[in-house]
């Protein structure tokens, strides 16, 4: 795959992911303006991730059967249709449907693109480099989508944040999936990988029989939970420290920027360092940061921890994706990606509730210490991510 082709695929993911990110900002604001309760808004936000839990495995099987273009066409159509529904009927019910459709479309896009990019690599070094570049797309989309939506909501109407402004914002977001499809429609499809002759029908859960796949999924869950606990607990911890909303937002922004910057540098790092060593270093650094985070009170020291944490956790996903493609049979890579995405999104829905319960019982600092301890114990699992002769894909 040439650099230009990879750039088009990155742009395609940015466009479709930005649609969801923009809707995740615009729909809660409109719902609150219409008088809906914070609890209802919380349900609305959860729907963006909920669809990905249930559609991840079917989306993975679809990618295995049809490659890149058909899943991308379906995703772009679903995302645009969902946003247009909210544009035409800006009710709470329509926004919930839009959240389900844009969230599901984004998940299916991620799986199809990751599978295509992984199958395009010629060796392990190229695999790591390509996933490092592809991992920049969500960070860029999470900036572009909310920024564009917020700008239009404030300035595109007769008055700031009137219904016309929201509709203009929805219309602009509905165009992004079409741009995504235009970017991938000329991409060359990879040759299909049919199952071996005589292979018996399989289920996605059969992949968990492979010890290395189970270990990789567990390690990925640890890192994803660390990301979730920081995003959920930091605002609560900052509130306890008396920090303003602007300062707390700056701390979260510093984390996101660091996670994006490390992915820019990762192609150089990945060429010299094995995947498990990057993940192990990230695990050790994250456990150490979680140990000291609750002891800090200064915004500057908390900001430094946020940056270090962003650098550590931002480096993990490309390494996980590289390992996953090396150990998964070619004809089941979409299924494996779907199982991974389903696990992460299910965790993102459930873990904040668990964190809140534990924090209420033992204090919010205890949540950091518990997860830091789990990470320290999980370091042994990371060291076991050694690919043996029998672990490579078929």
From TrEMBL:
Residues 1-390 form the Major facilitator superfamily (MFS) profile domain. It comes from the Bacteria. Keywords: Membrane, Transmembrane, Transmembrane helix. It is found in: Membrane. InterPro entries: MFS, MFS_dom, MFS_trans_sf, Sugar_transport-like, Tet-R_TetA/multi-R_MdtG-like. It is a multi-pass membrane protein. The chain crosses the membrane at residues 41-60, 72-92, 130-152, 164-184, 243-266, 278-295, 301-324, 336-355, 361-383. This is MFS transporter.
């Amino acid at each position: 795959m040439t650099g230009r082709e990879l750039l088009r695929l990155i742009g395609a993911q940015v466009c479709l992911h930005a649609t969801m990110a923009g809707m995740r900002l615009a729909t809660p604001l409109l719902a609150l303006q219409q008088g809906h309760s914070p609890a209802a808004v919380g349900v609305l936000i959860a729907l963006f991730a909920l669809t990905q839990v249930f559609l991840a495995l079917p989306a993975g099987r679809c990618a295995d059967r049809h490659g890149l273009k058909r899943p991308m066409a379906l995703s772009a159509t679903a995302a645009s249709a969902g946003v247009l529904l909210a544009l035409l009927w800006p009710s709470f019910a329509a926004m919930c449907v839009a959240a389900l459709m844009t969230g599901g479309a984004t998940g299916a896009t991620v799986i199809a693109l990751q599978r295509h990019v992984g199958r395009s690599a010629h060796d392990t070094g190229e695999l790591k480099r390509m996933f490092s570049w592809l991992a920049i797309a969500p960070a860029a989309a999470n900036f572009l989508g909310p920024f564009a939506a917020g700008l239009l909501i404030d300035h595109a109407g007769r008055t700031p944040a009137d219904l016309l402004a929201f509709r203009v914002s929805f219309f602009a977001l509905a165009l992004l999936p079409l741009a995504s499809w235009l970017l991938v429609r000329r991409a060359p499809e990879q040759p299909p990988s049919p199952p071996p002759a005589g292979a018996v029908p399989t289920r996605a859960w059969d992949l968990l029989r492979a010890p290395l796949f189970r270990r990789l999924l567990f390690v990925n869950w640890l890192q994803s939970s660390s990301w979730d606990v920081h995003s959920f607990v930091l605002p609560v911890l900052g509130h306890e420290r008396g920090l303003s909303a602007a300062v707390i937002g700056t701390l979260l922004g510093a984390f996101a920027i660091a996670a994006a910057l490390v992915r820019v540098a990762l192609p150089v790092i990945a060429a010299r360092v094995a995947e498990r060593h990057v993940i192990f270093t990230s695990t050790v650094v994250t456990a150490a940061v979680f140990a000291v985070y609750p002891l800090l009170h200064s915004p500057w020291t908390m900001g430094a921890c946020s940056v270090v944490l962003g650098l550590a956790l931002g480096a993990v996903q490309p390494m996980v994706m590289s390992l996953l493609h090396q150990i998964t049979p070619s004809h089941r890579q979409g299924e494996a990606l779907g199982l991974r995405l389903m696990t992460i999104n299910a965790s993102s829905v459930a873990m904040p509730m668990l964190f809140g319960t534990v924090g209420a019982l033992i204090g919010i600092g205890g949540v950091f210490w518990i997860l830091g301890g789990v990470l320290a114990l999980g370091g042994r699992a990371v060291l076991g991510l050694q690919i043996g002769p029998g672990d490579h894909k078929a």
